[in-house]
Amino acid sequence: MSARIPTHLTNADLHSHSNVSDGTLSPEDLAARAHAQGVELWALTDHDEIGGQRRARDAALALGLGYLTGTEISVSFAGETVHIVGLGFDADDAALQAGLAATRGGRLARAHAMADSLARAGVGGAFEGALRYVGNPDLISRTHFARFLVETGVCNDTYEVFRRFLTEGKPGYVPHQWARLGDAVRWITQAGGVAVIAHPARYKFSPSAEYALFSEFVTHGGRGVEVMTGSHSEPERLRYAETADEFDLLASRGSDFHSPTESRTDLGALPDLPGRLRPVWEALEHRIQRP
Ligand code: AMP
Ligand code: MN
Ligand code: MN
Ligand code: MN
Prior knowledge:
Elements: E1 12-13, H1 27-36, E2 41-42, H2 53-63, E3 66-67, E4 70-77, E5 80-87, H3 94-104, H4 107-120, H5 126-131, H6 142-151, H7 158-164, E6 179-180, H8 181-190, E7 194-197, H9 207-219, E8 224-229, H10 234-247, E9 250-254, H11 280-283
Helix pairs in contact: 1-2, 3-8
The protein binds adenosine monophosphate and manganese (II) ion (MN) (3 copies).
Adenosine monophosphate binds next to helix 6 and helix 7.
């Protein structure tokens, strides 16, 4: 990576999770897996948290990978939870750190309410059960509950958990107010980074609400969209390549890898971006940390 100029053919994976949020691998083991998978440019993007950034960067550079700082911020927009990935920011930025801490803040009370809801549906002990999977006490997430429901045999895998539990209208779902879109975009951009709409096909928006998301995102200073993600089907990749054209957005590529046994898309295992789109990592060339 060190001598190479990044292009749209760079094996960039700019969306992944460690056990500092809801992944199962440490930042170091994730870096090693990214390296083994042929990733050349990597970003760890833990949910609402940048506590693993230094470890991830040190491990990446030791292995010869290029590194961009990363996070994935939970946002409430038009009644849905939207995820905004931040890339290439200064991890020491105080406003970004305070914003992320405030966003994480409600997770513990929400987890207790989720456990109460699961108990009413006949699944007891879920708070203590989920906690056994938590690597960072500040970041208890639905994924940790999902692992407990699999462990206890209530569901066969985490995909079944999210079909039967933890999503709107199902036991264990607790509505939550996350960060505002404009705040999340500003925390990232004012720290020198680029804000990217994560996995847009995952949101259950009407066409007009989706249009509002993209146009407000751009108005706030957002510049990128994930086109190649483990969360998108092939038609969805084509569709959001067109959205990148329409809103003149930089395109990103990331697996959203969480775990060797749970994730369908491994680190770096995605098609290249279409050549006509501008990769987000070209605009962040000056922020890439190199071995
Ligand atoms: P939270 O931030 O606590 O709401 O948890 C969100 C996390 O749960 C996401 O980042 C995914 O890792 C996981 N998740 C959410 N929905 C699903 C789904 N339908 N299938 C699999 N994992 C999901
Ligand atoms: Mn996750
Ligand atoms: Mn996400
Ligand atoms: Mn993610």
